[in-house]
From TrEMBL:
It comes from the Bacteria. InterPro entries: TPR-like_helical_dom_sf. This is DUF3808 domain-containing protein. It comes from Hymenobacter rubripertinctus.
Length: 486
């Protein structure tokens, strides 16, 4: 998800004065344990630990707010929004006259939590202003207390995300005065991730997940999550991250095993999105009735608007591929009636709903098999696909692209390169994601082979497509890869 204002200037630096000597700035042992329970997603345990300290203490206010924003964003319950923002305002008021690195960091962090809540629940203008104030405050913390690492964790994360946003968001960032820097952000994150501080585990996870998503370092991220999960098997957040990492790396069997062994019970905060993840995994295996049950459970327990269109789309796929045409028609109709199109998954589902051209069942099964890591079965499925004079261009492109992906993931790189290039050549300016994704993958292959100039050409090609379903994520990855090469 999700901002920066550059406040450091010669005059401002003079106004702030030289860095001050840092007082004690750590959480108390009870606050640290309470924060660990927030990460465990055990709210009652966290509140019990916080109840032993002063309600106006900066560490208590910070951990309380971490718990509050976690509950709000996981539930996505709009009925809780006003009370949550009011509680944040009260905490900020309690911190107004407090000084020191922890108190000033807590105020900036709570303001950032408020920005996230405002944006998620549709108050974008308020959220933008809160974001601007949060960044300015966080930057002042790092200027006054240069060695206070928690502030560098948050500042680095914001710098990275702003610096990596696609060009389409530049007007918004300029309007707010929020430039970004990927390199500076990563440096700050690494400082917080590699040196002891109260929030080091969080910084390590954020850094690893960024590198996995944008810099093709999946093994390191998975190894870290696995190690932490072995140390804390009762931690629901780590279980979620483990399932998510296995899914992203096409290791469906292991992801489902982790899902079935997840911690559960009344002590834990409900995490409906886990069922949505499981529904995808079951779709990959062709377990259509089980996939339907998992997404129905997700929709039943989830109060938010994000992922709803995607869930109805996946319900459609499970019913359609499972031969239940009546249910498929009902699910398809719900895509157009529910949810928002902020996330790419929901945008894709909405485009499917609006598109008069039906999906091809053979290609759809192959796509799901590839996503699940079943590459040989996917190639066998694609072997059943035949083109004719009336085959739509979209299906022709998908067939070629899916073959390329399966071969690429099997390590047959020369064959994959040929098919990626063929996808690009056939696509022209067609508004589908197969050609830009092919260009992105060719860029990665050239980069891995030490062909820097070819890689740059392919990454620029990926950026050149004006419209497709996954433009934001594709452009971000291509932009960061180019920055590495230049």
């Amino acid at each position: 998800m999700f901002w920066l204002v550059l406040l450091a200037s010669a005059n401002l630096g003079a106004a702030l004065g030289a860095p001050v000597r840092e007082p004690v700035s750590e959480l108390t042992p009870n606050q640290a344990r309470a924060y660990a329970e927030v990460l465990n997603m055990r709210p009652a345990a966290a509140r019990a630990l916080l109840g032993t300290g002063s309600s106006s203490d900066a560490g208590t206010l910070l951990v309380e707010d971490c718990l509050g924003i976690t509950e709000l964003l996981i539930s996505q319950d709009a009925a809780r929004y006003e009370a949550a923002v009011d509680a944040q305002d009260a905490r900020l008021a309690a911190l107004e006259d407090q000084t020191g690195p922890l108190a000033e960091y807590a105020a900036a962090e709570i303001r950032l939590h408020q920005a996230a809540a405002q944006v998620v629940f549709g108050h974008e203008v308020q959220g933008a202003w809160s974001l601007r104030r949060s960044y300015g405050a966080m930057q002042r913390v790092t200027e006054r207390y240069p060695n206070y690492l928690p502030a560098r964790k948050t500042l680095g994360m914001l710098q990275f995300f702003i610096g990596s946003l696609p060009e389409g968001y530049r007007w918004f960032l300029k309007l707010l005065g929020l430039p970004g820097s990927v390199d500076t952000g990563l440096r700050n994150l690494r400082r917080a991730a590699t040196q002891p501080n109260d929030f080091q585990p969080e910084a390590r996870l954020v850094l690893a997940l960024l590198e996995e998503t944008y810099y093709k370092k999946p093994e390191a991220a998975l190894q870290l999550v696995q190690t932490l999960h072995r140390q804390q098997p009762e931690n629901q957040l780590l279980t979620f991250l483990l399932i998510s990492q296995f899914k992203k790396q096409h290791r469906t069997d292991e992801a489902l095993a982790a899902y079935r062994a997840r911690p559960s019970g009344p002590a834990y905060l409900p995490l409906p999105y886990l069922h949505h993840l499981a529904a995808d995994l079951l779709l990959y295996q062709g377990q259509y009735p089980a996939a339907r049950r998992a997404n129905q459970l997700f929709l039943q327990d989830y109060a938010g608007q994000h992922y709803r269109k995607d869930a109805w789309f996946k319900l459609y796929l499970a019913a359609w591929l499972g031969g239940d045409a009546g249910a498929a028609a009902r699910y398809r109709a719900r895509i157009g009636k529910e949810g928002r199109t902020i996330l790419e998954e929901d945008t894709y589902a909405q485009r499917f709903f609006e598109d008069k051209q039906p999906l091809n069942a053979t290609l759809t099964r192959a796509r799901l098999q590839i996503d699940g890591g079943y590459y040989r079965p996917a190639l066998a499925t694609l072997g059943q696909f035949r083109t004719t004079a009336t085959t739509p261009l979209r299906d022709q492109l998908e067939d070629t692209y899916r073959r390329a992906r399966a071969l690429h993931l099997l390590g047959e790189l020369d064959s994959a390169r040929v098919l990626y290039a063929r996808t690009i050549a056939r696509a022209g300016t067609a508004p589908y994601y197969y050609a830009p994704q092919s260009a992105l993958q060719l860029g990665y292959l050239a980069q891995a082979g030490g062909q820097a100039n070819a890689a740059k050409t392919y990454f620029r090609k990926a950026l050149s497509y004006p419209q497709h379903e996954y433009k934001n994520s594709t452009d971000t990855k291509a932009k960061l890869a180019l920055a590495e090469l230049e």
